[in-house]
Write a structure and sequence with these properties.
- The protein is an alpha+beta fold and 415 residues long.
- It folds into 2 domains: 2-163, 2-Layer Sandwich (Beta-Lactamase); 190-413, 4-Layer Sandwich (Phosphatase 2c, domain 1).
- It contains 8 helices and 16 strands.
- The protein has helices at 2-39, 44-58, 84-87, 142-189, 238-258, 262-277, 366-377, 382-397; strands spanning 63-70, 73-80, 102-103, 117-123, 126-134, 200-207, 215-221, 226-234, 283-291, 296-302, 308-311, 314-317, 321-322, 337-340, 345-350, 406-413.
- The strands form 3 sheets. Strands 7, 8, 9, 10, 13 and 14 form a 6-stranded mixed beta sheet that branches.
- A hairpin with a 2-residue loop joins strand 4 (117-123) and strand 5.
Length: 415
């Protein structure tokens, strides 16, 4: 009889080994199938379905829920053996507490306590997935099953994370191409050469904060001896601002040629901007026209930082005008400004990024500091004034970056 008992024990060991070999073979086949699916770029949903099938039929897992982080929340992507009511329970507060594979004894959360253990998948010390498994029987080889679930969960999670990173990279490449396009649009819109005559000299500073900024300036010469010049600040950045700028420039140049007065130009511009943006974006604008023969300057300030008229040691802010363009379908008020330049004068126009510059102490360059600089250097020509100003601001900001776009258009008028 002892021989018979020994034979039975031997057969039992053989059967156990066969089960282990079969389980290992199933695991290998499952991993090969998952790997092939990943190489064939099977969708995330397809991988989740394969995961569910392998754990249910080939590993014999009775309860499972797989969570991935998506749009700021942990979402269950596949599950088995758990009711929909339980799966609807919010686990976002609980999941960050699990950093290693561990049992789930004494857990009070109604969904989590349905399982026996949790398997987190970490990437650079941050969780990217959680697998909850449970429903084990007493005679099961839990250790080997958990080892396989851990392996296949890691494979699936890394594959899904790589898909996400790849999509993010593609989106970033598209965004970069859009930014390059917007920057190219802007380069074609901003004047590369400014006109110069016996009675005037113009100079500009243009420093976008990013590759694409929201500032704009332009100068238009007319055969009758007048020049029109403007500076504008368009809300927003990127492609949308660049396209709005392109539309703005095309309309402005057309209207300056067609309309008799600046009032007409600005009214038409406001309607054009509002029709495109519906009030979601707006433009501040300073627009002026100078007649070199009569030496008269007419201007409209549409909500823009007031330029300075520098003459004889005085600095007069040019404020007359209206509200910003595009905010409302019709402008509620409009007042044109005018001045006769009987003496040498400088019109200094700028966007507020100039006075927002900070030094290391956190102090703004400010309107007061700008005005003091302009009064001290008002005798300079347009190009020299801008050169000195740029050096002055560069020294003032010390180690700080420019906080916004900086655009300056300086117009020097001679008598």
């Amino acid at each position: 009889m002892p021989e018979l008992q020994e034979i039975k024990r031997t057969l039992t060991r053989i059967e156990k080994l066969e089960r282990e070999v079969n389980l290992k073979q199933l695991q290998i086949n499952s991993l090969l199938a998952i790997t092939q699916a990943i190489n064939e770029n099977v969708s995330a949903d397809g991988l989740f379905n394969m995961y569910n099938t392998f754990l249910r039929w080939e590993i014999g897992i009775r309860k499972m829920a797989l969570f991935f982080h998506e749009e700021g929340r942990w979402e269950c992507k596949t599950a088995l053996g758990v009711s929909d009511d339980l799966l609807s329970q919010d686990v976002n507060q609980e999941l960050p507490n699990f950093r290693t594979t561990r049992g789930l004894e004494n857990i009070e959360h109604p969904l989590i306590r349905e399982f026996d253990l949790v398997v987190p998948v970490m990437h650079k010390d941050e969780p990217i997935a959680y697998a909850f498994i449970g429903g084990f029987l007493d005679d099961e080889d839990v250790y080997n099953k958990v080892q396989f679930v851990t392996t296949i969960t890691n494979v699936i999670a890394v594959a899904i994370e790589n898909k996400r990173l790849f999509k993010t990279q593609l989106r970033q490449e598209v965004l970069n191409r859009e930014v390059e396009l917007a920057a190219e649009i802007q380069r074609t819109l901003v004047p590369t050469r400014l006109p110069e005559g016996e009675n005037y000299q113009l100079s500009s500073i243009y420093k976008p904060h990013f590759a694409v900024g929201g500032d704009y300036y332009d100068v238009v010469e007319f055969p009758d001896g007048t020049i029109a010049f403007c500076i504008a600040d368009i809300t927003g950045k990127g492609v949308a601002a660049a396209l709005l700028m392109a539309n703005f420039q095309a309309n402005l140049r057309t209207l300056l040629t067609r309309c008799q007065t600046l009032e007409e130009v600005v009214q038409e511009m406001n309607m054009a901007v509002h029709s495109v943006t519906q009030g979601d974006r707006f433009i501040t604008l300073f627009l002026a026209r100078y007649d070199v023969h009569s030496r008269t300057l007419h201007y409209i300030n549409a909500g823009h930082t007031p330029p300075f008229l520098l003459s004889d040691g005085e600095a007069i802010p040019l404020k007359n005008g209206c509200t910003v363009l595009g905010w409302m379908p019709e402008l509620p008020f409009l007042e044109i400004g005018g001045v006769c330049l009987t003496k040498e004068a400088t019109i200094f126009t700028y966007t507020d990024g100039l006075t927002d510059v900070l030094n290391d102490a956190g102090e703004e360059f400010s309107d007061e500091k700008l005005l003091a600089f302009l009064q001290e250097n008002s005798q300079l020509g347009a190009r020299e004034l801008n050169k000195q100003l740029l050096s002055h601001v560069e020294a003032y900001r010390e180690h700080q970056a420019f906080p916004d776009d900086i655009t300056v258009l300086t117009c020097k008028f001679f008598v």
